[in-house]
Amino acid sequence: MASGTGLIYNDQMMSYNLLWDFPACSIEVPERLSASFEKLKQYGLVERCIQLSVREATEEEIILVHSLDYLEAVKSTAFMNVEELKSFSYKYNDVYFHPNSYYCAKLSLGATLQLVDAIMSDRIRNGMALVRPPGHHSQKSDACGFCIFNNVAIAAKYAKQRYGTKRILIVDWDVHHGQGTQYTFEEDPSVLYFSWHRYEHQQFWPNLKDSDYNAIGKGSGTGFTINIPWNKVGMGNADYLAAFLSILLPVAYEFNPELILVSAGFDSAVGDPEGEMCATPECFAHLTQLLMPLANGKLCVVLEGGYNLRSLSESVCMTVRALLGDPMPPLVGQMAPCLSAVETIQNVRAVHQPYWKFLKYHEGVIIKDPSTKKLNFAIEEHKLESADTTDIEKKMTVFSMEKQDFDEFMDSHMKNVLVLAPSVRTAWAGDEVKSAKLDRCLKVEAKETSMEEAGILISGGDATQLENKRLLLSLGCIFPLIDKITKREVRNGIVVAPTLSSSIIAAQYSITVGASRVFLLLLGEADIPTDVKADEKILVVNVCAKQDKMRGNNYFIPICWEGGNECDGDLLHATFEFILPLAYGHRPELVVLAVGDNTGIPAVTLAHLTQLLQLLAEGRILVISQASDLVDTLTSSLLGDPLPTVRSFVLNEENALVLMKLRQELKQHWKLLKNSVL
Ligand code: X5A
Ligand code: ZN
Fold this sequence. Notes:
Blueprint: E1 5-8, H1 31-42, E2 50-52, H2 59-62, H3 68-76, H4 82-89, H5 101-120, E3 126-129, H6 151-163, E4 168-172, H7 179-185, E5 191-198, E6 225-230, H8 237-255, E7 259-264, H9 281-291, E8 299-303, H10 309-324, H11 339-352, H12 391-398, H13 403-416, E9 424-429, E10 442-443, H14 451-457, H15 469-486, E11 490-496, H16 501-512, E12 518-523, H17 530-533, E13 538-544, E14 556-560, H18 570-586, E15 590-595, H19 603-613, E16 621-625, H20 631-638, H21 653-666
Parallel strand pairs: 1-2, 1-3, 3-8, 4-5, 4-7, 5-6, 7-8, 9-10, 9-11, 11-16, 12-13, 12-15, 13-14, 15-16
């Protein structure tokens, strides 16, 4: 089991810079690296990573993507004077050369390949390479957009060649379209390229038709290029999250990559002069952890753009924390994607419908004339409702802040999102269960709970239910675990309980001990008292087979599987399309996951669900399992171990239709459910 997070940094890559006046390139400065590394040191993150050394890439590696002629041309820049460098640079689009550029480009690529090697040979689980020059714009015979060699594209070819990696996912969250990477793999179904980018109907650099939603790959690679063109600036946390939940993650699970490469540009973060977007640094931590359950955790993050030094460095730190498995701060802002984002997402889903199973049951209508193209589209309409716009989003969209104001905003924002990890990751209580994983957890003593005690603690609880002695015994284990979790002594906990009603009492108990909101995900049959159904503090999603359950309001939501639980994609599909959008919208302070026996849900799927739910509530989750044979799997997930992959992603049509109907009913209230304007 691979563990540890690798980090590559070397200040040699700061040894080139712009030598003449060239405004288009003035933002790509050496300090981008040092600022990021200094912040990592400040937060004590460097010593928590395994530092890897850089090397120069070989010519053989460079020509995995680039032409020999181009390589020779780049090589010759090492001996040019400024005038020669200038005229050489102007042959390309927005890129500059320096006598050290070639050397640094070799280090930048070499660092990326070192990271791939360490991950593919299981020396580390994941890692980040802080490199420059960036890579994703460079093409076979062209430098472009500050990029000389395409680090990530070469890394993908390298992994295929050296490790026989069959499926590689490239996630390009840089705010520019990585057209170089797209062109490299547009006919290759073994490399799935996903990119979102500022587009504004082709008004934004590099102004290509190839960046639009309908560029989806060619030949046998059709469907394996996914472009999310943002037609408005000001996209924020909810927009990015919606794109991940409604497109990237279901696609990724279906694709089942063996390795994930991230073209991690942070010019898509708030304050960046290029992107003009609004996503705050912790958003990148969420994006990172959403990818970590895939590919056995083999996640290789490589720096691309990012030109606001403060925003860049905070975002880098958040990404590294996520790789280390730290608890995630909740995302700020109203969890509602804006109208323009929803239109883009609808178009992407529509155009990809023929290629991905999870889209099979969706209305695939393309919007030919997005509202952003209409003359009367006002900036306020950009957000679905004005109340959905946070102060910062308004400010960043409408006015551009002075540097000092921005730094002040960042200072206070980062203070607010600081999350301290409890010293113990996982605790358990109850009878001895055969599970080696529990040896790595803290055992918490059960305390005796009387009917009165439980009755008093539970406001409005049904006292007759408590007569069940077994229930009281479970609560005696559950209450101390919740105490420890809410006091931040432990991050999460697990208990075996004979009845799922204990999970409802657990949720109520958490509220009485101070949690403002609890998300209860119940897999299996349980009778839920009416006062719980009516309680806005407790969001209940119940995946069940019974068909007689009525949805009372927006806070009690039964997903009644009409088609049973046999298909292993159903629950994952529900997780991305439904459960996570709701849970992110609810912003719980504790998650209770109750797993009944005989749910028919495969253990691997449960492990993935358990890991994904840890993105909420700063990782505070209590798992209540009815079956003791699931404890090993669930505990492993709570401990943050890398997960086995979900091999097949089969969906049951009836179940997919159940979800579709629920989404229509609930999307006015839970706005992250919006993936179309219909
Ligand atoms: C890597 C990257 C941006 C180039 C912008 C040129 N390049 N206008 O972010
Ligand atoms: Zn960029």
